[in-house]
Design brief:
Blueprint (H helix, E strand, L loop, with lengths): L13 E3 L4 E3 L2 H5 L1 H35 L2 H15 L3 H11 L9 H27 L2 H9 L4 H31 L11 H12 L2 H30 L6
Antiparallel strand pairs: 1-2
Helix pairs in contact: 2-3, 2-5, 2-7, 2-8, 3-5, 4-5, 5-7, 6-7, 7-9, 8-9
Length: 240
């Protein structure tokens, strides 16, 4: 049960006579805990998708660049399919479509899977560009030193490739977080779902979505800042 709209809010109430609408943030303040829980779930889904998606992206990009023809074709078809269909359709297919085949997932699992699948498709293309940007001589030098192809990829090629496309990877992760708002359509209690709930019970649509917009903005800026700090630490000297 959501708390009632009290009058002791620290948010100012303002009115515009010409519009006939009085701003009241007391309902938002009373439900701030719910909003933070929703934001936490959004960040958790993003972390899962980013971790799995980046790992799969590296493997997919390597397969598309150096794998056999069948692997290149399969990965290429996957990338084109995901990048050219709406994320919400992918989400609905996983949550509503797969049960017809006997594959039933919880709403949370379906959301995490859909976000991972979507992020992986874009990540493969980003990583492929990074791998292509590494001079071939780097790989040849590693092989000439007696390193195995896998060791050359892990310790020579991959760090340089990630350093080149790191800003693009960060941007794609943040885009995935923002797109995750649609998982509220399958009743995942993320930030947007909580906002819809508060708005429907308090009828303070402007105030609710104004604060939620600021929360999404804050999360995006925070993630970008954290990723940039991590990039400066782990990829210093890798470019070029």
């Amino acid at each position: 049960m959501l708390p009632s709209n009290g009058s002791s809010s620290p948010w100012p109430k303002t009115s515009n006579p010409s519009m006939g609408y009085e701003l009241d943030f007391s309902a938002i303040t009373a439900n701030l805990g719910l909003l933070l829980e929703g934001a936490g779930l959004t960040l958790m889904l993003t972390a899962i998708a980013a971790t799995l998606g980046m790992a799969l992206s590296i493997g997919g990009a390597a397969a598309r660049r150096w794998g056999p023809v069948w692997a290149q074709t399969l990965v290429g078809a996957y990338v084109e399919l995901i990048r050219n269909t709406p994320f919400i359709v992918q989400l609905f297919f996983i949550f509503f479509g797969l049960p017809s085949l006997g594959i039933k997932l919880t709403a949370l699992a379906a959301a995490a899977l859909a976000m991972t699948i979507n992020l992986t498709a874009y990540g493969i293309e980003i990583m492929r560009a990074g791998l292509e940007a590494v001079p071939p001589g780097q790989r040849e030098a590693g092989l000439s030193l007696g390193l195995s192809p896998l060791s050359v990829f892990v310790y020579v090629t991959l760090p340089q490739a990630v350093a080149v496309v790191y800003p693009a990877l960060v941007s794609q992760i943040i885009i995935t977080m923002l797109e995750s708002a649609v998982v509220s359509q399958i009743a995942v209690i993320d930030l947007t779902h909580v906002a819809d709930l508060i708005q429907s019970r308090t009828y303070r649509a402007f105030e609710t979505y104004f604060i939620v917009t600021l929360i999404y903005l804050g999360m995006a800026l925070l993630l970008r800042c954290l990723f940039n700090l991590a990039g400066q630490r782990y990829f210093a000297g890798q470019r070029g």
